[in-house]
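Weekly structure sync - notes
Attendees: PM, LS, DV (DV joined late)
Agenda: review two folding runs queued last week.

Item 1: First target. Sequence and structure tokens pasted below for the record.
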Amino acid sequence: MKNNRLNYFILILLILILGILSRKISGIPLFIGDVLYAVLIYFGFRFILIDLKKATSLLLSLLFCFSIEILQLVQIDWLIAIRKTTLGHYILGEGFLWSDLLCYIIGTLLAFLIDLKFIKTQNSN
């Protein structure tokens, strides 16, 4: 179980680096960052709540990503101030896009499939 947590942590670091690079390197479509964001959230849930069923992690990840996207419709001064910071921008985004929801679905499903195929758990949930 501890080994799986380490695997998830390594994946999180790798995805973080790839996600930041996807925003810094011109020529990489913006949607790649959104897909990677969802992958990161999925593996983040797996890392923190390692005993959860993988399907539950999938649903929680989608709920989290969708909530963040819908929250972008809220324009409160203090929330706008947080979004203007680098970290706040990376986590909370900037503006609502329907296409981001599709990217989150793709990203969480991709992470879920990678998890099912390559990361073995004791109880194979």
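Item 2: Second target, run right after the first with the same settings.
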Amino acid sequence: MSLNLTGITLTYPDGDSRLTALDDVTLDVPKGSLTAVVGPSGSGKSSLLAVAATLITPDTGTVTIDGTATTGMTRGELAELRRHKIGIVFQQPNLLPSLTAVEQLQVMAQIDGRSPARARGRALELLDAVGLVDQAGRRPHQLSGGQRQRVNIARALMNDPTVLLVDEPTSALDHERGAAVIDLITRLTHQKATATVLVTHDRTHLTAVDQIAEVNDGRLRLPAETAG
């Protein structure tokens, strides 16, 4: 398993008591597969994604990334793990206005110490994979919403992550563009052999996912029927 959550419980302070965001959650996401996590607002989806991304440490339980358990890691070690093993696609692309599409990706590799030439080659390869190599020189304001989200996805793959975590990628897109983005994530998951978790409130585009996990009141359930 490339991503494994075992017995995850997460609580937050709530006055004199604590509010349970995740309640004994266990989830396995194999390499090269896409798991969609669905549920109503406030159900715990975002908390699950944050724990999987090692951005929040759970009260109990274990997060294992590509065979490495994160329990006891320092903040610096977790940052290093994220940089090399985890790609995160945020709900909003948050692209830098002054950078072109290819430069958005190059920055990620240069932070990791790669040479500019290697970084550019990798960036163009990924832009080609998401169908935007012909838009490499355009800045965010020159791209459509769907194109910006595709740059966002390509950027998350820049450092060859083992785990890809995607947060509500279609929330700002119309139905057609949303379907295209989900299809792209599905294709890239299989091509790049990532363990992908897609958090979404929209079930209409999930016909091709490998597994659907439903979160409600912090508890996770895997329905008997999932697409495959």
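Discussion on item 2: DSSP finds six helices and ten strands in the chain.
Action: LS to circulate a short write-up before next sync.
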